[in-house]
UniProtKB/TrEMBL annotation:
The keyword Magnesium does not apply. It comes from Microbulbifer marinus. It comes from the Bacteria. GO terms for molecular function: phosphatidylcholine lysophospholipase activity. Pfam families: Lipase_GDSL_2 (PF13472). InterPro entries: Ester_Hydrolysis_Enzymes (IPR051532), SGNH_hydro (IPR013830), SGNH_hydro_sf (IPR036514). This is Acyl-CoA thioesterase-1. Residues 1-30 form the signal peptide. Keywords: Signal. Residues 36-195 form the SGNH hydrolase-type esterase domain. SUPFAM superfamilies: SGNH hydrolase.
Length: 222
């Protein structure tokens, strides 16, 4: 048999395999992927990764029988500019249907201008939406020792971005644990393992609405 014959045979076999795959199956992993882009708070800094809120989210989705693949692309020390630089590759690689952005804390700790944080967050939202992903934004706040002017300008970034881009927002991700005894590690910045379930509970209503495509504005928290 000739080489041409073998090529034709392989071509026909390949076409058969393609047609034998149920419609939509090749897109299932992309359609069901949730990407978390965050910093050390979501990277489970100082605790076992299995205790972190993102892993707890995976487990809760499994318990709820929701076929969602959770990718944690969070890195300790990440800034909004670093997240923005990494996002195009992450979107291309994972093709997420949903994106949770938990960034900005390190911008604030380094005293970066709130205006640059706002620009970076908006660009991330627009990049994600251009790729067909829906975005949930988790807000942060700075401690009072940074001064009233800076802390207020920083805190205002998240609702402004959420309103401008019409995306759901958790105004202050650490709200349920920030002042809770035993909920923060000795550095006063990172939540303990004990605090992780409370963090998940805080974002869960927004995550549920996001997955069910029932979030039409930024007011998804109680």
């Amino acid at each position: 048999m000739t080489t041409v014959f073998f090529r034709q045979l392989l071509a026909r076999f390949g076409l058969f395999l393609l047609l034998s795959v149920p419609l939509g199956q090749s897109q299932a992993s992309a359609a069901d992927t949730l990407l978390v882009l965050g910093d050390s708070i979501s990277a489970a800094y100082g605790i076992d990764e299995a205790q972190g809120w993102v892993q707890l989210l995976r487990e809760r989705l499994e318990e709820a029988d929701k076929p969602v693949k959770v990718i944690n692309a969070s890195i300790s020390g990440e800034t909004s500019s670093g997240g923005l630089a990494r996002l195009p590759r992450l979107l291309q690689e994972h093709q997420p249907r949903w994106l949770i952005v938990e960034l900005g804390g390190n911008d604030g700790l380094r005293g970066y201008p709130p205006q640059s944080l706002a620009r970076n967050l908006q660009q991330m939202v627009r990049l994600a939406e251009k790729q067909g992903a829906e975005v949930l934004l988790l807000g942060m706040r700075m401690p009072p020792n940074y001064g009233r002017a800076y802390t207020e300008a920083f805190a205002a970034v998240y609702p402004k971005v959420a309103e401008a881009e019409q995306i759901p927002l958790v105004p202050f991700f650490l709200e349920p644990v920030a002042l809770l005894d035993g909920a923060m590690q000795t550095d006063g910045i990172h939540p303990t393992a004990k605090a992780q379930p409370a963090l998940l509970d805080h974002v869960w209503p927004c995550v549920q609405l996001l997955l069910e495509q029932r979030v039409d504005d930024q007011s998804c928290t109680p």
